[in-house]
Amino acid sequence: MTAKEKIEELRAELHRHNYNYYVLNTPEISDKEFDDKMRELQDLEQAHPEYKDDNSPTMRVGSDLNKNFTQVAHKYPMLSLGNTYSETEVADFYERVKKALNDDFEICCEMKYDGTSISLTYEDGKLIRAVTRGDGEKGDDVTDNVKTIRSIPLVLHGDNYPQSFEIRGEILMPWDVFEELNREREAREEPLFANPRNAASGTLKSQNSSVVASRKLDAYLYYLLGENLPCDGHYENLQEAAKWGFKISNAMQKCHTLEEIFDYIKYWDTERKNLTVATDGIVLKVNSLKQQKNLGFTAKSPRWAIAYKFQAERALTRLNMVTYQVGRTGTVTPVANLDPVQLSGTIVKRASLHNADIIEGLDLHIGDMVYVEKGGEIIPKITGVDTSARSFMIGEKVNFITNCPECGSKLVRYEGEAAHYCPNETACPPQIKGKIEHFISRRAMNIDGLGPETIDMFYRLGLIQNTADLYKLTAEDIKGLDRMGEKSAENIINGIAQSKEIPFERVIFALGIRFVGETVAKKIAKAFKNIEELEDADLETLVSIDEIGEKIAQSILNYFANESNRELVNRLKEAGLQLYRTEEDLSGHTDKLAGQSIVISGVFTHYSRDEYKDLIEKHGGKNVGSISAKTSFILAGENMGPAKLEKASKLGIRIMNEEEFLELIS
Ligand code: IVH
């Protein structure tokens, strides 16, 4: 078999396994076998760039290249649907349609998926474009991101699809993925996504398609558009589309009477809780495309369809108390403590109040009857107060606390931020414990055998005060403690010792500097050889690093301005942690561009701009944004702007082309 044949065979096979797994939910091979085949294909494609294919299954892993989305006009505008919460209005819709058509008709009932809408264009059986709704007339081209969504076919099955068509649907983040993502974000003290819809649309707009790939989005398609569709029925067309490889909901049903429609609504209002993705209503569509055409559109929405929205689930209960939680970076979160109340199948006792402004906006008083909603959110929230229930004995007004509930320090609020912080980073107990918990977590130092309870015990017993103390612990110190046998004690000590192998970028992340998440930590590890360089970096140097803006830079400066943090880092260094890049991290790195400030300008042919930026950094140089007297040279591609050219020649700065640059670093 030639390489070309093998590549084609693997592509076909992987497309099929993707479909089995993500659309049909019936995998035929193990994840391992799948990964092996994918790797084989990746290797072959790399060895044979001449057989490149934009719709290869390997395109689903995404790329790190930043992208600004281009706007694309929709061929058919993306309209919205008329909405109602009332069954009477559903009946009105039905009667209107009946009167206007004056003929038999079917209504296709389907779920209203609560995600972010997408329009996919296929030509000759291949996905060629994916565009967001935007303003309905034009949207963002998010094709690269959408290609990472495994349930969207890149290449269609069979051969009876129209040569060119659009299919529209909803991109969704399944509940379990959403919950896991928020758990991770909570651990990193990153802002949580309020609901799967926000998480899906935020993810889809990500500038980095490998982030999208990692977020495991799903997609249901519900609207086929084009000239030569196979059938006159909307329902029948979608059944065909299912055969081409699209994920089509199997909750669709054709109804012939109003009664059947209400039965459908009633059934799915409860049954939807068992679906893997969020829904917020039912969509009713006249099934025949001919009849749809007869009914036509108003300016905003089709006359042949309507959305019936489910009531958001809401409960009324009493507010007993507001307590405050202090997170690892000192963020103080107000929590409403409520009379227990049943809401969407769970008992709710606590709800987030987010921040001081929200409390103020609600004019909250202790003893108030408050509305709690769950909607698409996992964390219930208070959405209002029933002021009519306030008696003459109105309770005390809720005022946000001024001092930390844990250590008594005066709270601070930074300009432009909604949150209050406890500034006592090094001595406030939940911050200390939180920092240690973050430090040992899987994505940071990954120390096995240690969890929040053990950390809490060690802290209470005075065994550890900070992360560096972990490296002083011996098995003798901890064995015999509560539920700590010899074996677990040894496991913990071994785990701690092994963490000394964790690479620089993860150690930086583990330090728990506010706003320094994994991505930023990676950029830092790339930009600085060791922790000393980072400690000495000034604002200008920090903001010149990709992904680091003023806010993050300032937070890094604040961290190292604190003497106890410097001391801690020193102790971690003495303990043998990798607070520097190792040979392995450094492979391919040189000092050839050390001390040089380089401006990149124009369009390149050999490598992308980002790749040149990486190359500069790998060879010790610094990529800077604008030309100044300090600029060492300009790496220029085609079409460098005239203003830049003029400035460069005025300052006598050398302009180097791609070939010269590559020669320089080779
Ligand atoms: S049909 C012209 N079907 O709801 C009608 N829309 O306000 C095209 N949606 O933007 C839409 N589930 O994002 C249709 N089964 C479904 C849907 C659905 C969710 C969303 C879609 C649209 C919005 C309408």
TrEMBL record:
Cofactor field: Mg(2+); Mn(2+)
Native organism: Bacteroides nordii CL02T12C05
Protein name: DNA ligase
One GO-annotated biological process of the protein: DNA replication
Limits of the BRCT domain: 588-666
Domain of life: Bacteria
One matching Pfam family: OB_DNA_ligase
Function noted in UniProt: DNA ligase that catalyzes the formation of phosphodiester linkages between 5'-phosphoryl and 3'-hydroxyl groups in double-stranded DNA using NAD as a coenzyme and as the energy source for the reaction. It is essential for DNA replication and repair of damaged DNA.
A GO CC term attached to the entry: cytosol
Keyword Metal-binding (UniProt): yes
